[in-house]
Amino acid sequence: MGVTREQLAEIFVHAGVKKSVVDGLQADVPLTKQGLDSVDYPAILVAIKDMLGIEIGDKEACELKTLVDFEKRLSK
Amino acid sequence: MSVNAAVNAAVNAAAEILGKNAARHPDKPALLFQEGARSYAQLERDAWRFAALLKRRNVAPQSMVALGLPNCPAFVAAFLGAILHGAVPVPLPASLPAPSGPPASDASSPGQERRFILEDAGAVLLITDDPAQPCASGIAVLPCDLWGPLEDLPLGDMPLVTDRIPFSPGPDDLAFMLYTSGSTGRPKGVPHKHADLLTPSATLGPAIFGARPEPLSGEVLLSTSSLSFSYGLMAQIGLGLAGGATVILHSGPAAAGEVVETLAVRKPTVLFSVPTTFDALLRTMDATSDLSSLRCCVSSGEAMPASLHEAWRQRSGVAVTEVLGSTETFTSFMVTRPGRDKPGTLGSPTPGFSVRMVGEDETEVLDGATGRLLVKGPGIATAYWRRPDRTAEIMRADGWLETGDLCQGPQEQLRHLGRSDDRIRTGGQWVVPSQVEQCLREHPAVADCAVAACHVRGLAYLCAFVIPVASNADAALGGDILRYAKERLARHMCPVKVAFVTTLPRTATGKLQRRRLQNQE
Description:
Number of strands of chain B: 24
CATH architecture of chain A: Orthogonal Bundle
Number of domains of chain B: 2
Helix content of chain A: 40-55%
Order of helices and strands of chain A: HHHHH
Shape of chain B: globular
CATH class of chain A: Mainly Alpha
Strand content of chain B: 15-25%
Mean pLDDT of chain B: 89
Number of helices of chain A: 5
CATH architecture of the largest domain in chain B: 3-Layer(aba) Sandwich
Radius of gyration of chain A: 11 Å
Distance between the termini of chain B: 51 Å
Oligomer: heterodimer
């Protein structure tokens, strides 16, 4: 199953990230350097589980730093 | 030598910390801040300057002096200077970023919390870099910048080195007071005595850094927790400065990107932080990020999941030491030994401390059963400020302190199961659910709500259980409610999930039963 950039953006917005922040995200820059913080990250993991039914393991969650990382993981 | 013998109650704690280190290594950097530094000799002089200003303003010994300052050299000098003078510094909660939406109408507003603390403590003076802050009305202000006071000291008012005579504390005299969130949201003052400030370096320091003489003197210490929090104050002053280390002061919120930069530029050898920040650092660093300077990492605030332990150890090469403490104990009273204790367990009591677990009938619980954790040891506050009711409940006459933590044995492998009250510890800070609920109820689409703990990757966060006004609530509304909270509340108070429900569990008298919602999202 793949996930489009638009679907990922929708998940981020539903996780409480501002749409203006989501629209300005660069794909290969760590999200923590683009305004996402310690509350956004777990909220995104929760939204992914709720919206896609995908539960990301603890170890691999540490590796998800950028939009590209999320796209690759969710396209597995 | 016993711990009690190591900490002399009749010694002025600030004079002990400053005098010992300024004499031993006067030119060694005590503080690194932004592009500058303060040596131990300079810090001692700065602290005495604050003490002289308090004397000039006729601040009586044992008067409460509020510190409305971020992490900066002025905070450290004012804190220690007030103690030299015999006044009692009261750090106000760290400043929060200005909200982009209208302020919350309850005590979760930082301005209201600061105002409450000023009044409750009976502060006679506010030392601040922001005299315009709303809570400052009606109280004398000593303005300063991040490095020291703006007020000139008349020639002759600054005592010569030979004339510096610190306040000599009696057995009941206070040194400093911290505020902790109460279970109802009304903060409680926790006064500490002089010996309490010296207890971490006599007890926890050797447990973490080894029992050799001056185990911290060669270290460069960075704490991502603010000086206004008990953990940050203990790490930076109670361990760092008291132990003769160089302390890197991190200004502003410890955003992961800034911490990574500080790690690269300042190269600390010791890092004090909390699990959520260790996690954020791992997701911020790239392959070139250099952690080679680190030789000791300490975590507190909540249990660190095993997966995070392992990820940090692999990336940094350093196994994390976990400690458990509270505002009441000031010194962390439990400490793990990396490699010996299982992740998720609390380790052993810090030397000098004893712990035990009791059940509802007040008898010791058997191994494997759940009980309330009690602690006894040096440096623990003996009363809340002007709260005899809460003092009687928490600080028992037999010397044991009720931590409020529910644990499961055996004692050498205690596991933390939760709290005996509704408070939630997340991101290393306490959250009172009712404060978050009050904010969320002001959202036009929220009819009612309750906030409880949920766990994501083993770390505690907040989940908001919301009864929506309309029946067609969807994920988009959930996202809107999360953003609404983020615009009005401190980060650690923001939920990470909204679960829409039709009813909330309540007692027959209508009291919310938040415990029934924990991890039920």
